[in-house]
Fold this sequence. Notes:
Blueprint: H1 2-14, E1 31-35, E2 38-41, H2 42-57, H3 62-68, H4 72-92, H5 99-113, H6 116-127, H7 134-151, H8 157-174, E3 177-178, E4 185-186, E5 191-192, H9 198-202, H10 207-211
Antiparallel strand pairs: 1-2, 1-3, 4-5
Helix pairs in contact: 1-7, 1-8, 2-4, 4-7, 4-8, 5-6, 5-7
Amino acid sequence: MHRRTALSVSAALLAAAPLLAACGGQPHPGAAAVVGGERIEVSSLQAQVRDVRTAQEASPQAAQLIQATGDLSREKLNVMIFDRVVDKVAEDNGITATRGEIQQTRSDFAKQSGGEEQLAATLLQQQGVAPDQIDSVVRRTVLMNKIAEKLGIANTPEGQKKLLGIFTAASKELDIDVNPRFGAWDDTKIQLGTFTAPWLRQISQDPAAVETGA
């Protein structure tokens, strides 16, 4: 029960309407963003994008998948920053995700999806996740579940508001600065300001997708 609750709430955070904010921040050559003083290099972002494109090109639905993720760089950066906010909230609350927990959760997801191959195909289609990025998705899920459970967050408007407040505070503490070419980060919505993606809104529509979503 906690698993679905946590991811339903986190999906609400990610699927919020975009803020049309001005692009600000200080210049950081070679960095896509700086989060908590740590750089997310453009090269690291590009590597994630390449992995997804390679997987998409090998799919029978290649053209459709590529078209659906036209702004993939921004999609991936949005998730990379969000992961660091999740890490911050988890660390502040003494929460970790062990390798065993990640492996067990991934195994559960695979069983629900009809096997590892189907899980990989679903994540690639619905969320632009390459096979070698699945563990990151699972780790995020484990952390979100634990955060919701420890903080007693229910799948209610009040629970969503509470979680949003916690993540907003963590986001502000991280002093997130995004390279203007990718937009601006919105602390109050926990997302890249001018970015919105249909697949984020789809996460909460299906229990299996919720559990493997951001």
